[in-house]
Amino acid sequence: MTPGNWRKSSYSGGGDGNACVEVAHHHPHISIRDSKTPTRATLTFPTTAFTPFLQALKQNPR
Questions:
Q1: How far apart are CA 62 and CA 26, in angstroms?
Q2: Cis ω on the peptide bond leading into residue 38 (within 30° of 0)?
Q3: E-strand spans in 1-62?
Q4: Cα(6)–Cα(23) distance, rounded to whole angstroms?
Q5: Is 18 helix (H, G, I), strand (E, B) or coil?
Q6: Tens digits of per-residue pLDDT, 10-34?
Q7: How far apart are CA 26 and CA 1, in angstroms?
Q8: d(CA 35, CA 19)
Q9: pLDDT, position 52
């Protein structure tokens, strides 16, 4: 993924915005990463699996 492909969550906090998740869409996949450690591992899903992943997160908040 190139740096321009990543978008920060609209729920990012104020300040420098480092406490959030970033998302990149690279058809046919969607990847997510922690903005605090952008060079580390990412999670990549087929586009069709991303919505169920988000729904599961909403049902099981930490």
A1: 28
A2: no
A3: 6-8, 21-26, 29-34, 43-46
A4: 5
A5: coil
A6: 766 665 655 688 899 888 999 999 8
A7: 8
A8: 7
A9: 92
Q: Is 12 left (phi over 0), alpha (psi -120 to 50) or beta?
A: beta
User: Residue 57: what residue type?
Assistant: L
Report the amino acid identity of residue 43.
Answer: L
Query: Could you tell me if 20 and 6 are in contact, meaning their C-beta atoms sit under 8 angstroms apart?
Result: no
- As a residue count, the chain comes to 62
Which sign does the torsion angle of CA 16, 18, 23, 26 carry?
positive
Distance CA 41, CA 51 (A): 20
> Whole-model pTM?
0.71
Mean pLDDT of the region 35-60: 88
Mean predicted confidence (pLDDT) in 47-60: 88
